[in-house]
Here is the input.
Amino acid sequence: MTLPLPLQAAAEARLATQSGDRRKESAALTAAYKAGGSSAAVDLGAYLATRMPATFAAVERVLAEVARLRPGFAPASLLDAGSGPGTASWACLQHWPGLQSVTFLDDHPAFLALAKDLARAGPPQLAAAAALRGRIEALPAGLEADLTVAAYALAELPVAAMAAAADRLWHASRQLLVLVEPGTPQGFARLRACRSRLVAAGAVPVAPCTHALDCPLEGGDWCHFSVRLPRLRAHMHAKAASVPFEDERFAYLVLARDGTPPAGGRVIAPPHRAKPGMSLRLCTQGSVEVRHIARRDASAYKRLRKCEWGDLVGAPDQQEDGQ
Ligand SMILES: C[S@@+](CC[C@H](N)C(=O)[O-])C[C@H]1O[C@@H](n2cnc3c(N)ncnc32)[C@H](O)[C@@H]1O
Here is the structure.
């Protein structure tokens, strides 16, 4: 789950030209995001060193699930809304190298310039990407793409703009809409609100949901996942980190214009493994259940023993996917 080598090299080259106290800037960036602040005032170098590897890893994990669930999906055009440095576009091109056109949209000119700059190191479609300054909640009606992605962008919109943002992003998506947010209760709440609104408008959940019914999570519960990524040298330095990896928590939602939600249940918490067997917390057809799989139930245990948080497992009488 590491950055593509040309992106990593381009980011490192860019960082090498910048002076400043990376640790101080990174600490300021982390504090700003934790306080719910926007990217408007963040240091671009600090973003490249400390956030881009993690947002890339989360988006990549989500796209891998999309590619697995929709093997025939072959988008020709991509809209990367709230593109920042173009992170999600790089991940999309890894999965769908047949993409012909890419559009970066952001309301921050410095991020757009950075996205264009890094894209020069990428494949031709990325190097030729269009860069559009604009706001997600006011996307022009004519701006459409087979695949629209908004990664870690909704978090920066005022709550009052969320409904318009959801509607515009959906309108722009000819086939699929992918939303990725920080794996916090707030990130999940934003996605849940988009889900209710867009499912009512006819959108079909592709992942992580296995149904189009109301989200069954209650109280303070929130649906989120985790991806582990190695820390690059610049990242270790910027964060004064001592371990060479980090775990990025993310929430996501993929919606399609056609098809049906996948069958089965999504594992929405780390599996609990013990001597007598294992327990999986699953979101299934409109409800959350804990499924116990006894070790003595050899065939079910064998099918599910390697199952991980975030996997999709088959309905009880179906072949399990989590192997
Ligand atoms: C946290 S960064 C995420 C960047 C990139 N998608 C990624 O995953 O690394 C959020 C980006 O959204 C942009 N943004 C914030 N509010 C926006 C809005 N209303 N319309 C368009 N872009 C916005 C910011 O300028 C910033 O580039």
Observations:
- The chain has two domains: 5-256, 265-313.
- The chain has a mean pLDDT of 91.
- The CA atoms of residues 156 and 199 lie 23 Å apart.
- The first strand starts at residue 77 and ends at 81.
